[in-house]
Amino acid sequence: MTLKAVLFDFNGTIINDEAIHATLIQDLLLAENLRPDGTDYQHCCLGRSDRACLRDLLRQRGRIVSDQYLDQLLERKRQAYLAQISSLETLPIYPGVAEFIHKLHGVSLLLGVVTGAGREEVEMVLGRSQLAPYFSVIVTGDDIPTSKPDPLGYLLAVERLQRQFSDRHIEPHHCLAIEDSLVGIEAAKNAGMQVVGVAQTYPFHMLQRQANWTVDRFTELELERVEAVFARQDLESPV
């Protein structure tokens, strides 16, 4: 199973912005006269789309809202996030991410993003960090109706890669996912992919139980070892 593509999660994986999201969600709840709870945020939101996160937080507090009202809340959060990111002189991109992306591109691996974040948010960050040209596909929460751990986002990314690069015969088992959350790892595995867990949001030992490989930071990820495992599995698979 030759490694052909690497698919990145976004929040908590490429950009260190989970604290920003948590604060913005807290502000939304306070505006709704509801009490925020950090434990609830971790359970409902980490690795999941804003829509799924906010819907579950409201439901836990006995508030059932229409899709239209939820859209309004999400738009307020989106605008607040874009404003906050725009105000930052330096984006909080994780150390080693850019170098790792350059390395992957240098060995002709296809790259993609699979996230529950909104497209405008992703494109702003990738554009400002000058990483956008390296990604062939971007699947966001605007593209799919479900949230991780549902594998739909990862499967859609593969489908788009197949259309763009039909000569490469890409299947899910040719893809490596990079994730920071438990639901993200589950989504990628449900899609039939191997996963690297980066311990930037959850403790190392929690990710290690779920991911195929686990590292504390991108600089520790040895691409050659990962490629060797993919190649060995290719040789061991029945003809």
Give a description of the structure:
The chain is α/β, with parallel strands linked by helices and 239 residues long. It has helices spanning 18-31, 38-45, 50-60, 67-87, 97-106, 119-128, 152-164, 182-190, 204-208, 223-236, and strands at 5-8, 110-114, 137-139, 175-179, 194-198, 213-215. The longest helix is centred in the first third of the chain and has 21 residues, at 67-87. It has 2 domains: 5-16 and 93-236, Rossmann fold, CATH 3.40.50; 18-87, DNA polymerase, domain 1 (Orthogonal Bundle), CATH 1.10.150.
List the main descriptive attributes of the protein structure presented here.
239 residues; Rossmann fold; globular; alpha/beta; DNA polymerase, domain 1
Query: Spatial order of the strands in the main sheet?
Result: 3-2-1-4-5-6
End-to-end Cα distance, whole Å, is 12 Å
The helix/strand series, from N terminus to C terminus, equals EHHHHHEHEHEHEHEH
In total, the number of strands is 6
Percent range of helical residues: 40-55%
- What Rg, in angstroms, do the CA atoms define? 18 Å
Could you describe the largest sheet, including whether it forms a barrel?
6 strands, parallel
CATH topology of the largest domain: Rossmann fold
Mean of residue pLDDT values: 94
**Poorly predicted runs of 5 or more residues:** none
Strand content: 5-15%
The CATH C-level name of the largest domain is Alpha Beta
> Shape from CA axes?
globular
CATH architecture of the largest domain: 3-Layer(aba) Sandwich
Structure class: alpha/beta
Number of helices: 10
Domain module tally: 2
CATH superfamily of the largest domain: HAD superfamily/HAD-like
